Amino acid sequence: MSLFIKLFSLAIIFFIVAPFVFSSAQAASLNFDKSTATAANGETFQIAVTVDPGSDALNSTDVYVTFDATILKATAVVAGSLFPTVSNDLSTSGTVYIAGMVDDPASSINTTGTLATITFQGLKDGSATLAFDCNTSKIIKNDINASNVITCSQNGTSAVTIGSGGSSGGGTNPTSEPVSELPQSGVFDNVANIAIPGIILLLLGSIFRLVL
């Protein structure tokens, strides 16, 4: 086989493999430190919001946590240690807004950590789900375009039961019984992550056969 054909074949294989390699980079996402939480009616409990930068370096994040305001009330937000500057807004019913940012763009965030801890109070017996509004939440990469790198399918949720649980009264989780297990998201992503190394190895084997 001529050298030209070999190089041409290698170039084609590279362009096939490259998208899989680069797309398999870890995604940036938001999560809670607890997947479930319980409290008595009138009692308070805490849940932390965490930020996973994935394979990116971050400058800031805007987080909107949503919940059923008939079941829960957000009473306080305490800043975590991930970002040096953290602010919050509890004025909107059913939503907690938390913003985190670096003081110096040269000191970007590249590790997973706690953005803030929210204190909730149970208002009545019922079940609800804490979630992130991905239409408004952002995870901002440290680049000249301030790219939003959040991957909504990787964001977590937290199932909350107040008192004996029961109907949530038309809220975000209107089930009649407490949630014992959260639905798993990102299943396709996990399958793809397992399959990609096998595809790459297969193509690399083809490359060696062409070169040798």
From TrEMBL:
Entry annotated with the keyword Signal: yes
SUPFAM superfamilies: Carbohydrate-binding domain
Gene Ontology biological process: polysaccharide catabolic process
Keywords of the record: Signal
Keyword DNA-binding (UniProt): no
Domain of life: Bacteria
One Pfam family matching this protein: Cohesin
GO molecular function annotations of the record: carbohydrate binding
Cohesin domain location: 36-146
Signal peptide per UniProt: 1-27
CDD domains, alphabetized: Type_II_cohesin
Protein name: Cohesin domain-containing protein
